[in-house]
Amino acid sequence: MSNSRRLFLKGACIAVVGASGFTLARAKSTSATNVEPACKYALVHDETKCIGCDACSIACREVNQVPEGVDRLEIKREGPFGEYPNQQFHFTRISCQHCDDAPCVKVCPTGAAYKDPKTGIVCVDEWKCVGCQYCIAACPYQVRFINPVTKAADKCDFCKETRLKENSLPACVSACPTKALTFGDITDPQSQVVQVLKSTPSYRSKTDLGTRPKVFRIASQSGEIEL
Ligand code: SF4
Ligand code: SF4
Ligand code: SF4
């Protein structure tokens, strides 16, 4: 891994994910919803760089052992826009938005859906999940599902239990051949994710709902209607 790719793990978050790991995160899960995290992980999807190759979703499936028939990450393809030979496609990332104010956490009756107190990652404790599907109904982004193997609610966890534990970037971020994905601590002004957001206008999905998503998007110009 290059030095620049390691930068996101410096500071508070490395101690949080690397050292505390699974046990501490779960032990504190029930009191997690109202605690301001030590750091806040966020992701940027640069739609102008995305070529819709699906390397990200394939890597996600492999690293996180996502069963067939369900997805933690989908790349939605729209188009073609324009006329041959200048046709373009528009690719949108569909995955958990790691909402700062997460409806899934609010409705969970057992505390299985929780916001990690150290990283702000919205997680699922599969051992506490009773499969009631309240969280699936409450999620405005429709990214939760029942894992057919664990029978618990599941979704993107920013690779908290796999790649972050190894002090590596999320699988989708590492796999992307065009560097369309940037991940890091949004509270650290030096982080790569903050640098990208400072330098380029971005948008987030359904902000009118007050969920405060931590997945940012840099809009693709393709798909605009030319009058
Ligand atoms: S996108 Fe859905 S599953 Fe993810 S934190 Fe928000 S409400 Fe929860
Ligand atoms: S961060 Fe990890 S779990 Fe989330 S979509 Fe990327 S690879 Fe999948
Ligand atoms: S790997 Fe990168 S370029 Fe390919 S679909 Fe995913 S985000 Fe887009």
From TrEMBL:
InterPro entries: 4Fe4S_Fe-S-bd, 4Fe4S_Fe_S_CS, ET_IronSulfur_Cluster-Binding, TAT_signal. The keyword Iron applies. Residues 41-69, 87-118, 120-149 form the 4Fe-4S ferredoxin-type domain. Residues 1-25 form the signal peptide. Gene3D superfamilies: 3.30.70.20. Keywords: 4Fe-4S, Iron, Iron-sulfur, Metal-binding, Signal. This is 4Fe-4S dicluster domain-containing protein.
